[in-house]
Design brief:
about 130 residues; mainly beta; four-stranded antiparallel β-sheet
C-alpha cells in the first residue's frame, strides 16, 4: 500500500511563496497520476493540479494557473506544488492524492479519480 505524507505548509503573507512536497512510501508512485486538492473551511474539497506519470502532462484549476506549478521527481518518489503570488483565498488544507488504478484524464479533476490520500498540510495566507 502507498502512504502519502505532505510537508511544507505554513503561514505566509499575501504575495509570498510556499512549496509543498508529497512523499510516497510503501511502493513507487512513478507510474501513477498524482494530484493536489485543497479544502477551505466550510467549503468542498476542490481540485488544484494534477501531473501525469512522466511529468509531461499537467492540469490546473483556472484560479491557480500562472501562479502554481506541479512537478515530480520519480527518483525521490515525491511530487511538489510550488505556490507563488499567494492570495488569502488560497488558504486551505492541501491534500496530495495518487491514482494507482490508471483512470483516465477525464476524471483527473475529480476526487474519485484518486484512491490514496495524504493527511493534508495547512496553508494560511495572511492579507
Amino acid at each position: 500500500q502507498v502512504q502519502l505524507v505532505e510537508s511544507g505548509g505554513g503561514l505566509v503573507q499575501a504575495g509570498g511563496s510556499l512549496r509543498l512536497a508529497c512523499t510516497a512510501s510503501g511502493r513507487t508512485v512513478s507510474r501513477y497520476r498524482m494530484g493536489w486538492f485543497r479544502q477551505a473551511p466550510g467549503k468542498e474539497r476542490e481540485f488544484v493540479a494534477a501531473i501525469g506519470w512522466s511529468g509531461g502532462i499537467t492540469s490546473y484549476v483556472d484560479s491557480v494557473k500562472g501562479r502554481f506549478t506541479i512537478s515530480r521527481d520519480n527518483a525521490k518518489n515525491t511530487v511538489y506544488l510550488q505556490m507563488n503570488s499567494l492570495k488569502p483565498e488560497d488558504t486551505a488544507i492541501y491534500y496530495c492524492a495518487a491514482d494507482s488504478q490508471g483512470t483516465g484524464w477525464d476524471i483527473a479533476k475529480n476526487a474519485y479519480g484518486y484512491d490514496t490520500w495524504g493527511q493534508g498540510a495547512q496553508v494560511t495566507v495572511s492579507s
